[in-house]
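Pasting as-is:
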Amino acid sequence: MNPFEQQEVLSQRYPAATIYMENSNLTPARNHMFQEKTMEFSQDESYSSGKSYPLCDIITLPASPILKGPVERIIGNRRTRRNFSRKGVQIAKLARILKSAYGVTSKGSEKAGDVMLRACPSAGALYPLELYPVVLRSKDLALGVYHYNVKNHSLEIVKKGDFLEELDNNLLGAELIPGADVALIITSVIDRSLAKYGERGYRFILIEVGHLAQNISLVCESLGFNSVCMGGFYEKDLADLLSTDIRSEPVQYVILLGAH
């Protein structure tokens, strides 16, 4: 089945998910509307990042030590940091990030079909996400686009070369890219989840992207890496860079990584 036939099948099976993807994709033509919206929001002083119930009874929680355990310290120290040192990523560090973020950590029970369980929660243990590290600076890895093969914990070379310019043209906030060592691109094979859960499976996919991004952010913090999560990009052009089909395997997130 060619990509066009596959898209037709997906559109018929999951019309709501397909419509959402098509209408939320960012393109150069739509970028001005996106920029106008963000500018309008930045001038809105009514925004609040939390809510309260002032008419309800209040129970004051007991004081507890902050950042006491190792995990708590990592969580407390995690920040979006854009000042990369440009030292270049080492394959050993990249391997630890990938393994800790989405790698196989154990096998499920026989009842679960001997599923290889991962480092983050996934609805139905279906694991619809795929990781593509684009290496921009390294001492022991050739520059290029790689795919993380989870099952055998390996990197598959999709294409070699310096793709800094392509990322610079297709990521909003491009001024951050030159300092990063890796652009970690997250995609989702949507039928892997929607085949079981129907349209709601797309919501599960987005939830899982959040789980994965937090894993990446925390393990980077623990290894002395800075990370910047980026949601503004041109999906079609990044999919072309990865040689994936935007309709069946859309790009969901990009995380820039680099040493302190």
